């Protein structure tokens, strides 16, 4: 009897246990659903700037002009802002990696501002954007001061208001109390 178990065990060991052959034609290929990876901040910024470059002439609204007149404490007769038309064009941009876990990238976009009516160079401003939750968010609009330092533009500045209104990404607005 021991010899029978030995021979049976040896046969199973040598030959192995074979399963019934599978029909390869009926097997369905296994597909893994691909999840989109993280977005590339630089390519996303290029898309935003391409939309901004397609923007037409931006006109200062009466409300934006009135806010500037009130801030400057001048009469409405001195209003040079309302219906003034500008073109905003991107001069350059720079994207930097940061150490922040919340905003791993920051971008600076330099904008040239030209009066649409006479083509005169008006000024240059810089928009600062931060990369959060796989999208760019506007942080601040600045102008270059006398000593080449960047300083926050007042929200009552009509050009700043028009830039905020026309830029494809929402730029945070801080309150100014007169």
Structure explained in plain terms:
The chain has 4 helices and 6 strands, in the order ααβαβββββα. By secondary structure, the chain is an alpha+beta fold. It has a domain of 92 residues. A 6-stranded antiparallel beta sheet has the order 1-2-3-4-5-6. A hairpin with a 5-residue loop joins strand 5 and strand 6. The longest helix is centred in the N-terminal third of the chain and has 14 residues. It is elongated. The termini are far apart. The model has no long low-confidence stretch (mean pLDDT 77).
Helix and strand content put the structural class at alpha+beta
* Approximate helicity band: 25-40%
* Unreliable residue stretches: none
Element-by-element helix/strand order: HHEHEEEEEH
**Care to count the β-strands?**
6
Radius of gyration, whole Å = 32 Å
Query: What is the topology, as strand order, of the major beta sheet?
Result: 1-2-3-4-5-6
What labels describe this entry?
4 helices, six-stranded antiparallel β-sheet, 29% strand, alpha+beta
Give a short summary of the structure.
This protein has 178 residues and is α+β, with helices and mostly antiparallel strands. It has helices spanning 2-15, 41-53, 62-72, 158-166; strands at 58-59, 85-97, 105-115, 121-132, 135-144, 150-152. The chain has a six-stranded antiparallel β-sheet with strand order 1-2-3-4-5-6.
């Amino acid at each position: 009897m021991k010899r029978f178990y030995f021979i049976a065990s040896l046969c199973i060991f040598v030959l192995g246990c074979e399963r019934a052959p599978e029909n390869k034609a009926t097997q369905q290929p296994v597909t893994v659903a691909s999840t989109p990876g993280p977005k590339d901040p630089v390519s996303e910024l290029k898309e935003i700037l391409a939309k901004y470059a397609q923007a037409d002439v931006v006109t200062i609204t009466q409300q934006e002009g009135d806010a500037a007149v009130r801030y400057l404490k001048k009469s409405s007769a001195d209003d040079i802002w309302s219906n003034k038309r500008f073109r905003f064009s991107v001069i350059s941009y720079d994207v930097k990696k940061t150490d922040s876990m919340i905003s791993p990238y920051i971008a600076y976009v330099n904008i040239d501002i030209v009066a649409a009516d006479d083509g005169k160079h008006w000024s240059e401003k810089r928009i600062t954007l931060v990369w959060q939750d796989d999208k760019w968010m506007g942080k601040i609009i600045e102008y270059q001061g006398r000593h080449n330092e960047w300083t926050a533009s007042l929200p009552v500045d009509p050009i700043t208001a028009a830039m905020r209104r026309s830029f494809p990404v929402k730029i945070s607005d801080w309150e100014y109390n007169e």
